[in-house]
Amino acid sequence: MAALTSEISGGIATITIDNPAKRNAMTAAMWRALPDLLNGLAEDESVRVLVLTGSGAHFCSGADISDLADVDRLDGDYLSVAAEEALAGFPKPTIAAIQGYCVGGGCLLAAACDLRFAAANARFGITPARFGLVYPVSATARLVGLVGSAAAKYLLYSAELIDAAHALRIGLTSEVVDRLDERVAGFAAMLTTRSQLTLRATKDIVDALTAGSPIEERVGEWLREARAGDAAEGVSAFLERRPPRFTWNGTTPAGPP
Fold first, then answer.
1. How far, CA to CA in Å, does 77 sit from each of 12, 53, 83, 139, 175?
2. 248: closest CA among 229, 232, 233?
3. Cβ–Cβ < 8 Å for 158, 211
4. pLDDT tens track for 123-168
5. What are the φ/ψ torsions at residue 65 (nearest 5 degrees)?
6. How many Å apart are CA 95 and CA 88, to the nearest integer?
7. Helix (H), strand (E) at residue 124
8. Torsion of CA 52, 58, 64, 66, to 10 degrees
């Protein structure tokens, strides 16, 4: 049965898109389930990093067209956008581990993650032009931010699949690696040892800058949080030549309305 599954180990939450019979296509029920699943993991203090992956040989081949045929098209678009926005807004670092097909809605989900690691066999594509659909505005803006307007138009105009090397050249993926699971596990584990305050602040500030949102008040809140704990510990650990013992595991300061 098609589903999203999750597990937590060593501070790393892994969400697996599990519909291997259809190359991990997302059903309407899976789109609906993702925001609530993410909200629960965001509130779990044991979770420091989120990994999104697919079951078996593929990441995600997009929306399950046979399922969405029974859903109003506008509602289908809403489901994918709500899931994308929930993933993009997840307050902790997110990594997409991509092998095989990363197409359509799958590419939308990967782009909503902070980082994308791909196996050499990964294939990327954005295919609304094959179906007469209009790609969601939020997903289009995120794609343009990642790869630039010319590459975004190439992907959207052609609906063709590109290989991992091409995706790396245009910035659609962060790395192409031989042993994907090993690399993602190692990188995610490394992030769990870093200052969670620094990681959260970086994500919050970079996302605000990208969106053109005011950041002065937000930065001030983060600086006050840092001075209260992690900054002093980081300097002390460096001077004492020992691993830092960061303790901050708070919430993201609220930005301006």
1. 30, 22, 10, 11, 29
2. 229
3. no
4. 999 999 998 888 999 999 999 999 999 999 999 999 999 999 999 9
5. -60, -35
6. 11
7. strand 123-125
8. -160
